[in-house]
Amino acid sequence: MMRLILALMLPAMAMAAPSVMVDVTGSAIQSGAEDAGSARRRALADAVYAAALAGGAEVSGHTAMSKSVITSDVAIVRPVGRVLGLKILSETQTGDEWRVTIRAKIGVAQADGCLARQTLLVTAYPAEIRVAPQAPAWTEQMAQSLVNDLLEQLSENPQVRLQRVSDRAMPVSGSAAEDAFDYAALTRGSNRLGEGEYAYAPTLRIGMEPTATGSAIRMEIRLDLVGHLGNRITANFARDVALPSNVVFGSLTPLVTKDRLHLTAKLTKGLKAQMEDLLTRASCAPVVARLALSGGVITVPVGRANGLTAGSIAFTADADASTQLLEVVDLSNRSARLRPLDPTLSPRSFAGRPVRFVQTDGNGS
Questions:
Q1: What is the pTM of this model?
Q2: Taking the domain 1-112, which CATH number applies?
Q3: 114-167 per-position pLDDT tens digit
Q4: What CA–CA distance (Å, rounded) separates 243 from 263?
Q5: What's domain 286-365's architecture?
Q6: Rounded CA gap, 44 and 102, in Å?
Q7: Exposed e or buried b for every residue in 18-34, given b needs 16+ CB within 10 A?
């Protein structure tokens, strides 16, 4: 009932401002001495979910009937609010009951609203470079240099772990099973994006535009980070730079080196900052994964290497079902084992469902 009251009282506040601060308390019952750590995390997750509902909730219903008789009636409840940050105010245990009170920031993520940065495991694929025939010959070399500089910037970012640099295009369809019939995959290894990884594959186009006084070089760059579930983070960059007045549109008049360097500097002004912004947004995005079930155990193909900790909480992220929460019970470098916080839910009901993780500031112990 506390969650429903919060959801009814605060959605107007959440809509009126980019974010709102709420204090909520979650609770959980400890089943035994060995359950203390898990009970504390369940209470914390209960508070996190209540905070998310404070930003409002989407509620939909599905009713099935047979011969005018209702056979099932299901309500789907999904939080509208996003937990942008939280601080644990208190943790208390009274008998078997744990109570955790948090202060949470709810709303739309802002530039300074990054709760916890994930580690980006990135596979770099070849850039797509297109240079118009009318463009100066030196722009093709400039384009390749830019691609190399961007890759170096990517690899040096502290939130990025560059897994590999491929000289083959990223597969856009099919399944890993098809690699058994692919000559390149058989002789050189699979080129597919690994689970929990991002693909980086920039697109660069250079063309010419006529102007009132001559012509200008137009450069367009699209920077994409694409997750293994198809989640995409993009940055677009475009610049128009006029050629010197003594170079007419279509002319082969060569430019001296200092002119080329000057034009290159003008064309690329702000590109490095754009790339940095892309990586910041990507690292601030929640870790997403798809749940798998094996032998009754729920797992995800992400782990410490992606920035998860024992205190991470998973929210189911499918649109056609109520939000459920899962806790991390075992964590390795590239995988994690999860458990529903609601013990009445069957692990089978989670198979194949997408989840996103929220990092709490507890250590999960």
A1: 0.67
A2: 3.30.1660
A3: 656 788 999 999 999 999 999 988 899 999 999 999 999 999 999 999 998 998
A4: 8
A5: Beta Barrel (2.40)
A6: 8
A7: ebbebebbbbbebeeee
